[in-house]
Amino acid sequence: MEQMREKPEGKINKSIEKDIAKAKKKLIRTAIERNELWENFGNIEMGKLEDKYRDYFYNIEVDTDQIDDFQKWCWNFDLDVLSEEKNE
């Protein structure tokens, strides 16, 4: 029997998810250490993701919307909510 191989697009989607999770973890850790958010929170990480996955933005099978969702997450991130969750 022939093994089912994952499509390259599936690997790219998983790679995007992994990179976003790593970026979120880093941003949260830094925000907690500083005890504040800063102007342009997440812009550097966003730029790195866009550069890395730029070739896939027009490939319909690659979920680059995850990158847009990450940008929205950065814009809406609230350190106070994180503190409240930690205290529960």
Mean pLDDT: 84
Which word captures the global form?
elongated
Radius of gyration over C-alpha positions, nearest whole angstrom: 16 Å
- Please report which band the strand proportion falls in: under 5%, 5-15%, 15-25%, 25-35%, 35-45% or over 45%: under 5%
N to C succession of SSEs: HHHH
Number of strands: 0
Q: Which regions contain 5 or more consecutive residues with pLDDT less than 50?
A: none
Largest sheet: none
Count of separate structural domains: 1
> What distance separates the N and C termini?
51 Å
Helical percentage: 55-70%
Give me the secondary-structure category.
Answer: mainly alpha
Number of helices: 4
Describe this structure in words.
By secondary structure, the chain is mostly helical. It has one domain. It is 67% helix and 0% strand. The chain has 4 helices and no strands. The longest helix has 27 residues. The radius of gyration is 16 Å and the shape is elongated.
Topology (elements, then pairings):
Elements: H1 8-34, H2 43-53, H3 65-76, H4 79-87
Helix pairs in contact: 1-3, 2-3
